[in-house]
Amino acid sequence: MAKNNPIVWAPSQQYIQRSNIMRFMERYGIKSYEDLVTRSTADPEWFWDAVIKDLGIEWFTPYKRVLDITDGLPWARWFVGGKLNIVHNCVDRHAAFPQASKLACIWEGEDGTVRKLTYQELAVQSCRMANALRSLNIQKGDRVGIFMPMTPETIIAAYACSRIGAIWIPIFSGYEAQAVASRLNDCEAKAVFTSDGFLRKGHHIEMKKVADQAVALCHSVKHILVHRRLGIQIPWDKERDIEWKDCISGSNPDCATEWMDSEDPLFIAYTSGTTGKPKGAVHVHGGFLVKIAQEVAYQIDLHEKDILFWFTDMGWIMGPWQMVGTGAVGGTIFLYEGAIDHPAPDRLWQMIEQHRITILGISPTVVRALMRYGEDPVRKHDLRSLRILGSTGEPWNEKPWRWYFDNVGGGCCPIINISGGTEIGACLLSPLPILPLKPCTLGGPALGIDLDVFDEQGQSIKESGRVGELVVKKPWPAMTRGIWKNPQRYLETYWSRWPNVWVHGDWASVDEEGFWYLHGRSDDTLKIAGKRMGPAEIESALVSHPAVSEAAVIGIPHTVKGEVAVCLVVLKLGYEPTEPLREELKHHVEKQLGKAFSPDTVKYVKDLPRTRNAKIMRRLIRAKYMGHQDLGDLSSLENPTALDAISQAL
Length: 650
Hints:
single chain, 3 domains, 7-stranded mixed beta sheet
């Protein structure tokens, strides 16, 4: 970014003084934000201990040590010896007088139905469901899938699992059966929460049917707990399926909350990498709670009277992020189940006005999609309740960033553009509301995160302004505790390139005034409309079609979705490269992985470029597709003629 890229927002003194982060700085005698950043990374044990005290996070048994790196940085342990539970901190302590009647959750269905849940009601319902799980012999450490739309029951299910120490598995509500099954099988889930369905653009999305198909492929799943959102007729197995209402109405409203070790697993968030099956990132009670509470309190400055709406799904990390963060601070979370522009383009703005939402988080993809309708739908509504705008999921470009800033925030709300990831469990980069902003910036390193930008030799180029690899040099509390059942994959994926350095897979740069920016992925992972998907999963779906011998998938820029999937396929003998087959392959992927991951383009080729050990070189495919003349190092390319085949296909 150029040095003269302008500062477009600066906080008023009143804005600064009411902020949570200023309270923290005054409490600990820190004079400037720069001093706070320096101290938080130089002395992380002081910083995280101070955060816990400032936010009043409660422990059943106090921790004896903040950080233990005896086993090395990749296996850092936090808040050693401490016992706690996120349910106590996010629900139970707010459910007691005088906060019992405070709203914990507001939900709106696409059909306009509105439901509200107080902290006391959330506590009682999560207790009832926790007792129901125990009656099904779900115990501490067992895994339970949550394949549900964004309804209050999704939150109740997660807290019910945590209350008894079970590990929950949030699964994207738009996945098809095979994608759901791969995640349930990997963690050997004993039960699954699902819904009969939900509404999207006026249509019934029938989730129970998908759950049934997925469970048919999972021998470990013994029970499906079903919430009736739509009240439609659904297939039913009397030996396996259980009505949500029966669990809630027939269970004791009191349930003892399990005392969990700080390092006990909380949930497994599945993310996609560049090879093989999805990776199960393990997150724990202590580290996830402390880091997310810190981010929601300080980065987006949530106070108890705030209503936070982050348009996401429980299957993406921002779902658990907003649930745990809002609960830890004692605010109100807003949930919505359907399309953001249905039945009219002003649906989002209407909900903000009606519910007086104060903090809104949406992705650049959503902004680009809403820009198509112009400014009139926004101007129809009073959005003055908003004071913070958030975004995540992918890099911005300036035009939609300014549209969001000017039209939605009226030029008065900072855009807290955060970036982290499923494995991060949190943010690596984030501005704060007390700092000035430039368009598209991510501000700088999140508090307590020791970031740098490396060149190919592992040397810091942060001060040069050049684009390089975003890396982390010290552990942080919400860092994944490894890949479920695959510690070697965890080490190889994040820690193998340079000693004691986490390589995140993003291109980053820092301008001359210290503002940080991201420039897309440095690995092959696709981000389609902010949703991450490994090319290997789409390739596997393609190869499962009887016509396909081989497949390679790349991501290319798209004006609305940010990135879309382009698939190159090699057909088996006897199959012709026809247009009907092309559409059939797109539908085949959509059927297995979900509509969100339907390929944008399918191209037929006779060969794919590969290394001598048979690894497909997606980098070269993408370079060819994008028309780059300089293809870089070709020394490991085994079959140069494959590049000619790609040129012919294009």
